[in-house]
């Protein structure tokens, strides 16, 4: 049991999948009063079948799966209409980012603004003291710092701390991640023992509201705002025309429609000029990344350069770097080794150099740049000793 635990009703965000089902089961087994909630985020009125627009974690059929689990567990289950809030906080963020030449992570605002934001605000009005989800992560209270800390899950293959870095101290204080100490296999095994019909339900692999090609979704949603423009190379020469910045991302090679003696990749997107910048493979590498809208978790502030391990995309291993605090909730990351295809809009999440499971904080990648090892202090002892956490 986590320190500073407060007994009382827990609302479980039930997606209809096995992870949130087992999360609810584990809490019920503890004797905690549990209420299951499924957020209805799909539009109530569409000319086409909404089940074709939303993936398994958010579709109408997911409500039936969640309701069936609740019946087996003997807990109440309700569906809340979150269509407008989901559109405002997640879908508009998603489309706006692509129009601005960024590659967004819609799961981050969905977690911080909806599941652990407005959902808990509503649940508190019903007397709930916590919100639980099926995320693979762990939260703990650290008496020495007086802070709630976010940790990686026990199962490194399923760890989702990357998508939870934006939770505030107030949100972490009320968060429960009951499956964070389990492997995925253990979760499915437990669901089978409990007789839950979702025990072998496949994991969702796509963006929940964009099953299939995100470009098709953008055309339908904001097609009028997507304008063609120029493709230039690093020397400034025009190499062709693009179909719209929203259809490209840093590191992309296919679909450029231009010939070259060497393979060309998207290395930058310039929304001010509506231009796609292409270059060769060597142009994709950088050692410096600027991160904005930083949320610190394990510490209240960075007093100076700190050695960390940083992830610049979910599927990539964390890499050694130095985090240098800047003004305005920004951090400069100086990596020991160059990183490939750093995409603005993606999350950069920092883990402690001495405790790789501990989330120091994270933010949104603003830009990348070329700098020397000396400027970063790599290899010169600058920032070699991590700040104590």
Number of strands: 17
CATH superfamily of the largest domain: HUPs
Give the helix proportion (percent range). 10-25%
Structure classification:
alpha/beta
CATH level 1 class label of the largest domain = Alpha Beta
CATH architecture of the largest domain: 3-Layer(aba) Sandwich
Q: Domains counted in the coordinates: how many?
A: 3
Give, in spatial order, the strands making up the sheet with the most strands. Answer: 12-15-14-13-16-17
Walkthrough of the structure:
The chain is α/β, with parallel strands linked by helices. The protein has helices spanning 18-29, 60-73, 83-99, 107-125, 169-173, 184-193, 214-222, 373-376, and strands at residues 9-13, 34-40, 77-81, 128-132, 137-142, 147-152, 175-176, 229-233, 238-242, 265-270, 275-279, 285-296, 306-311, 319-326, 330-340, 347-352, 359-369. It folds into 3 domains: 9-193, HUPs (Rossmann fold, 3-Layer(aba) Sandwich); 227-279, SH3 type barrels, CATH 2.30.30.280; 285-376, Elongation Factor Tu (Ef-tu), domain 3. Helices cover 23% and strands 29% of the residues. α1 runs parallel beside α2, α1 (18-29) crosses α6 (184-193) and α3 (83-99) runs antiparallel to α4 (107-125). The two termini are 22 Å apart.
Quick summary of this structure?
This protein is α/β, with parallel strands linked by helices and 389 residues long. It has helices at residues 18-29, 60-73, 83-99, 107-125, 169-173, 184-193, 214-222, 373-376; strands at 9-13, 34-40, 77-81, 128-132, 137-142, 147-152, 175-176, 229-233, 238-242, 265-270, 275-279, 285-296, 306-311, 319-326, 330-340, 347-352, 359-369. It folds into 3 domains: 9-193, HUPs (Rossmann fold), CATH 3.40.50; 227-279, SH3 type barrels; 285-376, Elongation Factor Tu (Ef-tu), domain 3.
């Amino acid at each position: 049991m986590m320190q500073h635990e407060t007994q009382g009703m827990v609302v479980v965000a039930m997606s209809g999948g096995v992870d949130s089902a087992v999360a609810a089961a584990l809490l019920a087994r503890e004797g905690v009063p549990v209420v299951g909630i499924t957020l209805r985020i799909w539009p109530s009125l569409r000319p086409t079948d909404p089940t074709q627009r939303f993936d398994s974690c958010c579709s109408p059929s997911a409500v039936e799966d969640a309701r069936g689990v609740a019946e087996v567990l003997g807990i109440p289950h309700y569906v809340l209409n979150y269509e407008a809030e989901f559109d405002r906080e997640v879908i508009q963020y998603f489309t706006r980012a692509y129009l601005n030449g960024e590659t967004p992570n819609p799961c981050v605002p969905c977690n911080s603004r909806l599941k652990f934001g407005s959902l808990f605000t509503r649940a508190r009005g019903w007397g709930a003291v916590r919100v639980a989800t099926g995320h693979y992560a762990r939260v703990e209270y650290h008496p020495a710092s007086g802070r709630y800390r976010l940790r990686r899950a026990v199962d490194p293959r399923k760890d989702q701390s990357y998508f939870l870095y934006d939770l505030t101290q107030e949100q972490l204080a009320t968060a429960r991640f009951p499956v964070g100490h389990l492997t995925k296999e253990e979760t499915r095994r437990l669901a089978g023992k409990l007789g839950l019909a979702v025990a072998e339900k496949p994991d969702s692999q796509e963006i929940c509201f964009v099953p299939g090609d995100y470009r098709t979704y953008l055309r339908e949603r904001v097609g009028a705002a997507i304008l063609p423009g120029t493709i230039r190379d690093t020397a400034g020469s025009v190499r062709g025309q693009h179909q719209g910045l929203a259809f490209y991302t840093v590191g992309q090679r296919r679909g450029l429609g231009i010939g070259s003696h060497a393979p060309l990749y998207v290395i930058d997107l310039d929304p001010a000029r509506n231009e796609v910048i292409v270059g060769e493979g060597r142009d994709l590498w950088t050692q410096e990344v600027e991160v904005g809208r930083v949320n610190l978790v394990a510490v209240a502030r960075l007093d100076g350069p700190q050695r960390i391990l940083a992830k610049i995309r979910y599927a990539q291993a964390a890499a050694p770097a130095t985090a240098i605090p800047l003004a305005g909730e920004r951090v400069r990351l100086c990596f020991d080794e160059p990183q490939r295809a750093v995409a603005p809009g993606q999350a950069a999440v920092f883990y402690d150099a001495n405790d790789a499971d501990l989330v120091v904080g994270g933010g949104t990648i603003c830009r990348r740049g070329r700098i020397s090892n000396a400027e970063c202090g790599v290899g010169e002892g600058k920032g070699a000793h991590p700040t104590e956490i």
